[in-house]
């Protein structure tokens, strides 16, 4: 099930974030890269601030109602975070969150979404219709690391309907 953030979720989301980086990150990143990435884990109060600010935090929950994955979508269409707890990988949570972000973006009139996807998240975003723009190599606390600038452009409904009518 997918739902929006509720105050009280912040501790579970922080745990998902840290667990994903430290337990899944090593599949594609070096120990130094994982340590630098994990050093950027957000404080639980930041989740509440994002929620109050109006950022859309969407949560995928397990059958027991506990959060197992989340996405953070900013008002400008930036999908800033997508993380899944390691115990719940390959169950469709991340792709459902990416698809939900697309549906929400369309419903509010956004023409595109964009993200910076890790090596591990890239296939999920590609499955959700995002295209890689370029690889981004940068330093994170002095450690070389990379991700991928990706975007998904929405075809306006009126344009796509007109194109079908003309054919």
Describe the structure.
The protein has helices at 10-24, 31-38, 44-53, 93-107, 122-127, 157-166, and strands at residues 2-4, 56-61, 67-73, 79-84, 112-117, 131-140, 143-153. It has 167 residues and is α+β, with helices and mostly antiparallel strands. The strands form two sheets. Strands 1-2-3-4 form a four-stranded antiparallel beta sheet, sandwiched between helices. α1 (10-24) packs across α3 (44-53). Residues 158-167 have low confidence and may be disordered.
> Count of DSSP helices?
6
What is the spatial order of strands in the main beta sheet?
1-2-3-4
Global shape: globular
Largest sheet, described in full?
A: 4 strands, antiparallel
Pfam families: Acetyltransf_10 (PF13673)
InterPro entries: Acyl_CoA_acyltransferase (IPR016181), GNAT_dom (IPR000182), N-acetyltrans/Recomb-assoc (IPR052564)
Protein name: GNAT family N-acetyltransferase
GO molecular function, one term: acyltransferase activity
Brief summary of the model shown:
The chain has 167 residues and is an alpha+beta fold. It has helices spanning 10-24, 31-38, 44-53, 93-107, 122-127, 157-166, and strands at 2-4, 56-61, 67-73, 79-84, 112-117, 131-140, 143-153.
Features of this protein?
single chain; 167 residues; alpha+beta; Aminopeptidase; four-stranded antiparallel sheet; three-stranded antiparallel sheet; 38% helix; globular; disordered C terminus
